[in-house]
Amino acid sequence: MPGSAEQIVATLAALGFQWTGPVVKQSERHATYQAALDRLVAAGHAFPCSCSRTELQAAQPPGHDQSDELYYPGWCRNGVRTPDRPTAIRFRVAPGTIAFADQLQGLQTADLARDTGDFVIRRRDSLFAYQLAVVVDDAAQNVTHVVRGADLLGSTARQVALQAALGLTTPVYAHLPLVIDANGIKLSKSTGAAAVDARQPARELWRTLQFLKQGPPPDLRRGPVASLWEWAIEHWQAQPLAGLRQMELT
Q1: Which of 24, 31, 120, 157 has fewest C-beta within 10 Å?
Q2: What whole-number distance in Å separates Cα of residue 193 and Cα of residue 135?
C-alpha cells in the first residue's frame, strides 16, 4: 500500500524507537543479496532448481504439514532436471542438527535435512527469499540481538545455517509470544486488529509492557515516553515469558 512504509517509520518514531543510520529498504539491496548468493553458489552451498510447487506437493512424505515449507527431496542437487524451465536457487542443507539458544524459548534444535531439505533462497521470479535477505541485512547493520514473534522461530535454524555458510556471526535471538484473540487467531491487520495509536504512545507502550508481564508502574501510563523506556530497560525481565509461544489479549 502506498505510504505504508512511511507510516510504520513514523509510528516507531512516535513510540520512542531510535535508529543510528538511514532506514534501509530491501527493494534497494538486490545487488548485495546477489553478491551473497554468488558466494554461496561458488562455494557449492547453493544450486539451481527447476522443480515446481505442484511436483513437490505430489511428492510430500506421509504426515508432512504442507502449511509449512514443502519438503524438498533433492531432485536437482546434482543438476537441473528440466533445463528449459525458469529456476529457483536452493541452499544445500548439510546433514546433522543445528542448535541455538533462544533467550525466551530456551535451547532449540532442528534437523533441516530431515524436516525441510534444501530450501529456496532466490525464487523463480528472481526475488530473493526472506531467509537470505534477513541474514545479509542483519550482518550489514551489525545487528547483535534479534527480537521477534514466535511464529518465526521455526525459520531461525535456516538463518543460522546461512550465517555459517557465509562466515557471519549469529545474533542472539529472543522470540516473543504471539498475541492472539479468544479464538486463538493471531492479531493482525488482516484479521481486523486495531492499529497502534501513535497519538498516545505512552499508553500504548504501557499496555504492551503490561501484556508482556513486566508490571510497569501505573503513573507511567501518562508520563513521558522517554521515562517509560528508561524504566522498561532497567526493569526488563525475561523469566515471565519463558517458554510462551502465544498469549491471549484480554
Answers
A1: 31
A2: 30
